[in-house]
Write a structure and sequence with these properties.
Layout (H helix, E strand, L loop, with lengths): L9 E6 L4 H15 L6 E6 L6 H17 L1 H12 L9 H10 L1 H10 L3 E4 L3 H4 L2 H4 L8 E4 L16 E4 L2 H9 L7 E3 L14 H7 L7 E6 L8 H13 L6 E6 L4 H8 L7 E6 L5 H7 L2 E4 L3 H9 L4 E4 L5 H11 L3 E4 L2 H13 L1 H14 L4 H13 L1
Parallel strand pairs: 1-2, 1-3, 3-4, 4-5, 5-6, 7-8, 7-10, 8-9, 10-11, 11-12
Helix pairs in contact: 1-17, 2-3, 9-12, 15-16
Length: about 375
Amino acid sequence: MTELAQGRKSILVVSASAGAGHVRAGEALVETATKLSLPFELRHVDILDYTFPVFRKIYSKIQFTITDASPELWGYLYKKTEFKGLSKPKSLVMKAFNHFNYRGYLRLLENMQPVALLCTHFLPYSAIDEKLLRPLSRLPVFSVTTDYDLHALWVNPSVSRFYVACEQAAWTIRNHGVDQERIMVTGIPILPKFTAPGDKFAARTDLGLSTDAFTILILSGGYGVGVIDELMFSVGEFLGSFGGKHFQLLVSAAKNEELYQKLERVSHPPNVAVKLYQFVPYLDRLMDSADVLVTKAGGLTVTEALAKHLPMIIFDPTPGQENRNATFLTEHGASLSAANYANLHFKLKQLIDNPSRLNSMRACAERIALPKAAETILEDVMMRLR
């Protein structure tokens, strides 16, 4: 990599489509930047678009494939690798592979000449760290982590500064030998439309929903076909046991057409009004409408919910980073955790029968939320680049 030229005008935001959260964090930084007066333009790319097609396909699907087939295996691999030292040099084979696999990415950096890299995944810097650490390279690298604890793979000497979700994540990085001065607790960046709770009555009215029914939002992100349909049916049947009390069940199938068609065929008790959604650009309004969210514990989803002060029930989180996220939320009172359907029914009943518990969870979510993370990160980056 050549020495940096003077007067470059762009910051390159680099994510990896290995799970939607990393990309959404990158999008949040770019959209937030448009609302601020910054001296640099932010451009967002997916590093996997600049790698071998086979590598891109495998890397983007590997986590979901393993967690879908064997969550326990993913948890084992996560724990097995998180304490391995990162100072061990890469093998010649790995160096050769990286040289060819990331050739397009390196060419992008040469042509664009960004003033900095702002990375929402570890791959954009860990894959080329030898080049970033060369004496002639002056490219600052900022790492934006996307969970409430983090794996050792995020920690790399090429990173100038780490932006993390909470003090627990900062502690983990320090435990890997990173100086406190290189770490800042900012929260996880989310799109501006999620950064403040909206009026529940107005949101329900706008979406054509009942304004007085207890409303449960189920998000399908991370759940495969065969789980979310069972989950929706199970929750609906349980709510039917409340007799005269009316409920609303809002279920998002995201972009999964097969799942959406399966959900359409599920029947529900007469006191449960079900609204199905495919990919919706107004997920923020669905969160505003809900009394409680049932979801897995993806870092971006739970961060959006915290900013909306929305209580959560984390259902069957995947071992690894999702389990850590769930533990963090539960310890701070913003969520409950449910390992199976019977457990989920019990937790729902607690919240339906005890509105004060819901209010307490909302207050806890508000207390730990850091909704302005994207602004905080960008302001700190600007200060350091100056």
